[in-house]
Design a protein that fits this description.
The protein is an alpha+beta fold. It is 29% helix and 25% strand. β9 (196-202) and β10 (205-212) form a beta hairpin.
């Protein structure tokens, strides 16, 4: 009977609706919540266990007949219809490669706080009101010290404002337009499990803010409140745009980040270690002196091969001072850039990421971005 039950569960797990984790979409989930009747991956099963939800391994644990029947009569599609009935279009649904705090709060929002069942919430959920304010720990622009700062998000004004001191009478330190704002979790880079990077345009520079909150629920609420405001802005700016077109533009993770060594335009200058960020949506490769810098040292536009851009591996001949040996050359219509990676694996990752951007046709707005970067030089 035990073998029969295990065979039944494995067959249920292979059904299209159960073949990916109910919460993070990881393939081939081999755990299950037999309280909720859904199939989940190992990582998500740990979060369910912390919620006192009963979980078992499909392959390793003993399953009673009645539990197998419960799983058969429920499953991921049934759970999704109940617990994800009213997820706002802007609310971020984490994937298996997202940071732990996003996956944890998604699961808690669904099954513990019941935020998406379609029932009216009172008081309303903070990310649905169009206005959110509170304190966040923010890194100083010139140092590594994090200090509490007040932030105010206004969907009506399409702005995110923050104050350097709690006394608001002195006015805000910055009023950030939602128009070009991006938010992405950067737990490892910031050194805090709830670390978030906020990026926006400030005159001719891209400005980074690094923030966190001790509460996982609060930081994820900030993230989804920002996404709600961005979604409202995009619906206003592109009134004919469909959700399918607009939702990927709300916020984005960067395609690739990491250290490379960089030389100058003559390729005879000494190599210097720099932190690089590849923003594939805007086709920009930024470089910074350090990974938590507020402003970039420079930016390189990545166009297409038909427009004079290319990328390849290389071994520089005349450069000096480079400690790393795995080269990457980026060719633009104006200049050749040479970078060095520490490991062959990192070289392959950078080449693949850059080629991914190169292979995507340029959109009309990309030509404006390209022209603006050339103009600034």
């Amino acid at each position: 009977m035990a073998n029969h039950n295990k065979k039944t569960l494995l067959e249920l797990m292979k059904l299209p609706e159960n073949s990916a984790c109910a919460d993070c979409r990881a393939p081939d989930p081999d755990w299950a919540s037999y309280k909720l009747g859904l199939f989940v991956c190992l990582n998500c099963s740990g979060i369910h266990r912390s919620l006192c939800s009963r979980v078992k391994s499909i392959k390793l644990d003993f399953w009673e007949d009645e539990l197998v029947e419960f799983m058969r009569s429920n499953g991921n599609a049934s759970a999704r219809a109940q617990y994800e009935k009213a997820v706002p279009p802007y609310y971020y649904r984490p994937q298996h490669n997202d940071c732990a705090v996003l996956r944890d709060q998604w699961i808690r929002a669904k099954y513990q706080r019941l935020e998406f069942t379609g029932e009216t919430k009172y008081p309303p959920l903070s990310y649905t009101t169009g206005f959110y304010e509170g304190m966040l720990w923010k890194k100083g622009k010139e140092n590594m010290q994090f200090l509490k700062r007040k932030f105010v998000l206004s969907e009506r004004e399409f702005t995110l404002t923050y104050y350097n001191r709690e006394n608001e009478s002195k006015g805000p330190k910055a009023v950030i337009p939602i128009k070009d704002l991006n938010a992405t979790f950067q737990s490892e880079k910031i050194g805090h499990p709830h670390g978030m990077q906020i990026t926006y345009q400030d005159d001719d520079h891209t400005r980074n803010l690094y923030v966190y909150h001790e509460s996982p629920e609060v930081i994820v609420t900030w993230y989804n409140a920002i996404r709600a405001a961005r979604y409202a802005y995009l619906k206003t700016a592109y009134p004919t745009g469909s959700d399918e077109e607009l939702i990927p533009k709300i916020t984005r993770n960067y395609l690739k980040e990491g250290y490379m060594e960089k030389t100058g335009p003559l390729q005879k200058e000494a190599f210097k270690k720099r932190w690089f960020i590849l923003d594939s949506q805007n086709r920009k490769l930024f470089y910074f002196k350090g990974k938590l810098d507020a402003e970039e040292l420079g930016v390189i536009f990545i166009g297409t091969e038909s427009n004079g851009y290319s990328v390849k591996d290389c071994v520089p001949k005349h450069a000096r001072g480079n400690k790393w040996k795995c080269g990457v050359t980026v060719e633009t219509p104006d200049r050749q850039f040479v970078f060095m990676c520490e490991l062959e694996r990192e070289q392959r990752e950078w080449l693949n990421a850059l080629r991914q951007v190169l292979s995507r046709p340029m959109a009309p707005q990309d030509y404006s971005i390209e022209a603006n970067i050339k103009y600034k030089r």
